[in-house]
User: Fold this.
Amino acid sequence: MALAFDEFGRPFIIIKEQEQKTRLRGIEAQKANISAGKAVARILRTSLGPKGMDKILQSPDADVTITNDGATILEQMDVDNQIAKLMVELSRSQDYEIGDGTTGVVVMAGALLEQAEWLLERGIHPIRIAEGYEMASRIAVEHLERIARTFDFGPTNIEPLVQTCMTTLSSKIVNRCKRLFAEISVKAVLSVADLERKDVNLDLIKVEGKVGGKLEDTELIYGITVDKDMSHPQMPKQIEDAKIAILTCPFEPPKPKTKHKVEIDTVEKFQTLRLQEQKYFDDMVQKCKDVGATLVICQWGFDDEANHLLMHHNLPAVRWVGGVELELIAIATGGRIVPRFQELTPEKLGRAGLVREKSFGTTKDKMLYIEHCANSRAVTIFIRGGNKMVIEETKRSIHDALCVARNLIRNNSIVYGGGSAEISCSIAVEAAADKYPGVEQYAIRAFADALDSVPMALAENSGLQPIETLSAVKSQQIKDNNPYFGIDCNDVGTNDMREQNVFETLIGKQQQILLATQVVKMILKIDDVISPSDY
Amino acid sequence: MAIEKILKDDASEEKGEMARMASFVGAIAISDLVKTTLGPKGMDKILQSTGRGREVTVTNDGATILKSLPIDNPAAKVLIDISKVQDDEVGDGTTSVVVLAGELLREAEKLVAAKIHPMTIISGYRMAAECARNALLQRVVDNKGNAEKFKSDLMKIAMTTLSSKILSQDKEHFAQLAVDAVMRLKGSTNLEAIQIIKKPGGSLKDSFLDEGFILDKKIGLGQPKRIENAKILVANTAMDTDKVKIYGARVRVDSMSKVAEIEGAEKEKMREKVQKIIAHGINCFVNRQLIYNFPEELFADAGILAIEHADFDGIERLALVTGGEIASTFDNPESVKLGHCKLIEEIMIGEDKLIHFSGVAMGQACTIVLRGASHHVLDEAERSLHDALCVLSQTVNDTRVLLGGGWPEMVMAKEVDELARKTPGKKSHAIEAFSRALLAIPTIIADNAGLDSADLVAQLRAEHHKEGCNAGIDVISGSVGNMADLGISESFKVKQAVLLSATEAAEMILRVDEIITCAPRKREDRM
Assistant:
C-alpha cells in the first residue's frame, strides 16, 4: 500500500485502519474487475440458446433449483465479488425491463470486457475504450432499427406472436410442448392486453403450478384459481351464475381498535352479551344473504358458529384467501372488495358464470376455479408437471414468453434471432469503424468482435464448430447482403432465420446492447478498489 | 493475474464433466439403493431414524424409503422428488420410476462418454418415450363396458400390486378387501372415505373390511352402549365452557355470591345448549371438541350417546357416512340434517373398545381393520394397502389395463428398438439406449428373484418377436410364462406415469452442466 509521508517522515492516515485494507489501483484494479466479470459471463455462456445447458443451484437451505434462466441463476448464486454483483444487477434489470434475454446480456457484457482487456494491454486508456464502445453501441442500435421488420398480427391472427414465443421457449425445458405453451402465453396476453393503448398489465395473468400430471395438462383458465376449498366440507362444490361477496372482514364479533374492556358483573349482563353475540353472527350472514350473494369469499377466518350458519343458509363460503388473490378475484368478477358488512350492496357483488372445486391426485388437494367472470380480463395459467423443479422452471419460462408477447404488443418490430442480428450488427460496426479517426477506432472494432461472441456461443452450445460456422454465416450475410442468416442451432438445414421462424423483439435486442455497454463502461471506469482485508 | 473469487467463502462450484459426473453418480446411487426392492421377490429395507427413540421402519415402498433418506446430492433430490410425486399422483410405481430414471441415466453416461452431446441424447429419449407410450396405448385392454370383467381386472391389479409387498401371503384376501373398498367409492378418488384402523394382535389374515364405520373412541360413562335406529347429530362446537367471543369481554365481580351467580348463569347457558341439542330428537351426539363432565351428564340423563373429541377427519367421514351435516348452531332443529344409522354398538377388537356404526345411509365410506403381529407389520401393511387402494381408485377412473411381469417393458423396448433402426443420425444411439434401459427392469425383477436374468430376458425377447405375445417373467416358477393366464395385470395410468416422469427427470439431470452450491446457512448449535 502506498503511503504518503509528511516532512518528518510520519505517514498520513487517510483511510481508517489503513493497514488492514487491501487496495488495488490502476491497471491492476481494472484487470481484476474484468476477470471477475468474465468469470460470471463464463458461467452463463453454456446456458445460451436452444441447446443451452441447465445449472443446478443449491440454496443455503439445501433446496435445489434447476434452471437455465440467466437472471435466476445469478440471483441465487451467492455472489460475493462487487463486480460480479454488478453483472447480477445487469441481468436483473434486463429481466425487469424486457423479461427475456437475461443470459444474452451477460454473455455480451463478458465479451466486451474480454475485448477491453486486450485493448488495455495495448495501452489504450480505459475512458477511450468506454467512449469507443458507446459510439459502437449507437451504431449497432441504429443498425438494428434498419434491419428490423414490423409484423402484423391481430386478435384473429395470432400466429406470428405464437412463433416468437416459441423461439423464446425453445431454449427452456418445456420445448417438448413449446407450441402449446406459446399458444397459452399468447392467448393469455391477448386476453389481458389493451390493444388500443398498446399496454399489457401482466399482473392480471396469474401463473399457478401444481405438482403432478404432465406438462401437456397445463391449461389456460379464463378466470381465477384459488388454492383453497370451501370452508365447510358439505357446502356445494359447484355454483353456477355465482354472485360473489368479497369481504375483508372476518365472520367474527367485531374488534374495535381502541382498547376497551367489557365488564361483566351481573348475570343479566352476561346474558345480554350472549344474545348479542348470537345476533352478530345472524346479522352478518343475513346481510350477505339479503344482498343476494351466492358465494362469500373472505380474507379472514370464520368462527365455527358462523361457518355453520353460512352452511345452514346455503351460502357457500371460502376463507383465508390471500390479499393478492382477493384483488384478482375482484378485478375478474367486477366486484368490489367490501371491508364492512354494513357496506354490502347488491352492486358491489362480483359475478362469475361458474365456480367449481376440483380435486387432484390421490391426496386431498383441492382448488377452486372461478370461471366465466364478468370481466374476463384476468386469466390464470395453470401448470402441471412431473416435479416441483419442473414446475418452477416452467413458471419462469412462461414468464419469459409472456414478457416477449407483451413487448411485441407494445412495439411490433422484430429482428431475426439465431445470432443473425448480432452478426449483422457486427458487420455494420466493423464497417463504420474505419470512419472514426482516433484511438476509438480500435474500441469500435473490438465491439464488433464482442458482438460475434453471442453467435459463437450459440454455435458452441449446439455442438457446431464455432469459428468455422460463424465465418461461414458472416460471409454469407455479406455476399447476399441479407441480414437474416444465423446459426442453425436445431439442425434444420437452413441458415435463413426467416424460414426457421426465429424472431426476437427489437427492443429486447436494443436493450441488451445498451445495458451491456453501460455496465462495461462503468466497470472500465473503476481504477481503485479498496476492500477490507481478510481476517 | 489470479482469477478473482466471485462466490462467497463456503460456496462451491462444479463445472462441466465434474458436475455431470456428480449428478450421474448421485442419481444412480439412489436408484441402486431401491433397486433390490423391485418386483415380487424384492427385499425390504430397515430404516432407523436418527431422532430420539431410534424408531425403526421396515418397508419396501420406494417412496417411503427415499422420503426418509437425508440426501445432499442435488441430482438425487430430483429422483426423490419424482418418487414423491408418483406417490401423490398415482400411489404406486414409486420404485419403478426411480429405477427407470436411474437406468436411463446409466445409459446416458455411456453415451456422454462416447462423445454424444447431452442435448442429442435428450431429443432421442423424447422420441423414444413418445414411441413407447404409443406402443402401450396400442396394447391396452379396456373392459369398461363389462362390469364383470372389469372387476376381475381390478382384482388382478390389486393382486399384482400386493404381491410385491408384505401382504403377499394373503394377497387374495387383501386384494378382495381393497377392491370391495374401492368399488364402494363409486368412482370418486377420495381415499379419505376409506378408513384404515390398525390394531396389533391376531394375524394379517384376521383383517377385515367393515361396511359401516368404526370410530376409535369410547362411549361416555353411564350412556347406552347400544342404540338401534340411531339419529346422529354431528357437531363441531365447544362443549366445555362456551366463552363469550366478544373481544375484550371479561368478568369482574366484587363478591363470592356474584361468582356463584355467574357460574350459575354459565351452567344455565350450557344446559340450554344441551337442551337445544336434545330437542333435535337425537339419540347420538358426536362432537369434534371436548365434552365436559357436566354436559356429558346431561346427555346421559337424556339417554343420549355422546362421543367427544372425534378428530376432524373422523367427523367429516362420519358426516359423509351417515349423511348428516356438521352443525355448530342449534337454534333451528327442523332444518338440520341428521345422520342415520341402523345400529351403534361398542365392539371389541383385540383388547380395545371401539364404536361401530352399522347400517349407514350412504354406503360410500367404509373401514378396513388391519390386524397383525407388530406395529412394524401393521405400518407396512397399511402402506401396501394404501398403494393398492390408490392404484385401484385410479384404475376405476382410467379403466385401461396392461399385463404385468415385465410385459409392458418388453413391448415398449421392442417398439423403441424398431424406431432406433428407422431413425438416422446420432439420436438413434440414444433411442437404442432407451430401449436398453427399459429392458433393465425385467432384468432387475429376475435378478431380485434369484433367477438367471440374462437367460430369461433373452427368452422373453425371442417370445416378444411374435405378434400379440403375452409373455412375461413368472417369478414363482422361475420361467417365462403367459401373463394373461397367470392373471398379472397393471394399470395403464401407473405405467404411463412411470414412463413419463422417469424420462422427464432423466432429461432434467442430463441438461445440467454446472452445480453451484451456496454456503450452508449457519445454524446455532443447540447441542
